[in-house]
Design goal:
With 115 residues, the protein is mainly alpha-helical. It has one domain. 79% of the residues lie in helices and 5% in strands. It contains 5 helices and 2 strands; from the N terminus they run αβαααβα. It has a two-stranded antiparallel ribbon with strand order 1-2. The protein is globular and about 40 Å long.
Amino acid sequence: MSRLIIQIVINALAILIAAYLVPGIVFDGSVWKLLLAGLALGIANSWVKPFLNLISLPLIIITFGLFTVVVNMAVLSFVALFIPELSIQGLASAFWGVLVISLTNYALGFLLEKE
């Protein structure tokens, strides 16, 4: 249970960092809405993303895995549809947002695993 809460907080921080660093990604909500966005991103990553990866498997194989960035952009845009406080304007913003969120998740997950 505590691992789930930690992952939600890491997702929320990643969204906040992406909103700060990437022009075109805006989050203008409270801390609770940010945690809700982190929860929504976690749910989308565990339920929607595997389905999209399965559907796009031929493209993922042809592009040697690079199409997974497009899948991640779709998942982030999907989450933004359900969280009104999170807006993503344009494909470039979604691309850089996915990169920032992925790197933040990786770095914070790596730091927390060491403990």
